[in-house]
DUF5063 domain-containing protein (Luteolibacter flavescens), 155 residues
Amino acid sequence: MDPSTKFGKTVERFCLWAEGDHHTLADARRNLLDLMALIAEVKHLRYSGDTELEFPRRGHPAWVEDLARFGDLPFKYYRVVFDPLDLDSTDEPVTGDLHADFADIYADLWEGLQAYQSGHIDEAVATWVDSYVIHWGYHARSALLAIDAQFVSYR
């Protein structure tokens, strides 16, 4: 299976999980790891086709509904450091929100999925890669770190 199709199928699986009514940290972790591993295979793809194509976007009311679906996860808040490579930073950690992370990731992936399911594979993959770099990737990395911390916690 080519990388674009493989990534598309993985996005479909994530979106089905996100749309479901039962969410576990194990499933969340597996989905994030699968998506992030495949980014490396498709990150070189850039869309150079019709820039006039329009696909549905998720608005704020849908995001609020999406946010509520993740209320069954065992924790919501965690600490975030924005740039782990900035060793000279004096920035204090801030609070991350696991439910918002998944609502944001889902929104970005869902929007690309509309293109993918309409047969616009290249545009979908480019959308997913670009939005990973500027948005959902940050949420995925932060969420994964918090989920892993929960898994190894002896509390």
